Amino acid sequence: MSKLKINNQFIQRVYKRAIKEYRLLIQPKIIQIEGIKIKIGEHISPPVKKAMYIGEYESSELRAVKSKLSTNDIVMELGAGIGLLSSYCAKRIGSERVFTYEANPRLEIPIRETYQINQVLPNLEICLVGEENGEQTFYVGKNFWSSSIIPWNEGAKPITVAVKSFNQEIRKINPSFLIIDIEGGEYDLLKYADFYNVKKLVIEIHPKAIGQDKAIFVKSKLAEMGFQINHKLSKNSGILEELFLERNN
Which of 56, 58, 180, 238 is the most exposed place for a label (fewest CB within 10 A)? Predict the structure, then answer.
């Protein structure tokens, strides 16, 4: 490796570290993550805010999407959060090719604010996706990224939300790229889900919420469907598995 390349890498690391420290010190009201503007409002708790300032918020998912998203993809996302990934995808391939679902109704306004300041308009549904149409209890956590159909987070408040059938929605949309970040709901989803024509998959698996046996079940079901883990674009912290998988069939 040349000295010039080593120096450039060192400069990039120093620059990124400086940006993180600057954000933590100044705490700007709007930040950019991979070119997407995010408004830091009251809906964002201190732990989530810190993750955003230091560049860790949805970093693994973004890395996989940035690397593998193609212009002919159709994206379906379960768990919109505050709209970062869906905004990024919409910028890349067009809003009409991005469909996202968020169960927490308190996040609708922040999501639409994210879309507005980034001049995108993905198809947003405020509901759960589940086995059948109907209603279900959803537990809203203090940190929005810990809200779930599972009451695993202390202090989470139960609310009733609308549910749309996952298998009906996926057949209607026919996505090639599926993103799943539903804080433990992945176990129930994999018991009935048909991934139809999906070829690329980003999924978070939460052993802390569902236990190791159910986490293993999720990965086994994905393997049965023909998905293979891309280890270069995946991460396992022990508490959380952030996986990118692909299949050819």
Answer: 238
Tens digit of each residue's pLDDT (9 = 90 or more) over 91-131: 999 999 999 999 999 999 999 999 999 999 999 999 999 99
Q: Per-residue pLDDT averaged across 38-61, rounded?
A: 84
Region of 40 please: left (phi>0), alpha (psi -120 to 50) or beta.
beta
d(CA 90, CA 73): 11
SS3 content of the chain, % helix, strand, coil (to 5): 45, 25, 35
198 contacts 173 by C-beta, under 8 angstroms: no
Chain centroid to CA 120: how far? 17
pTM attached to this predicted model: 0.88
Which residues touch 175 (CB under 8 Å, ≥6 apart)?
A: 73, 74, 75, 76, 99, 196, 197, 198
Distance (Å, rounded) from C-alpha 17 to C-alpha 13?
6
CATH 3.40.50.150 given to domain 57-246: yes
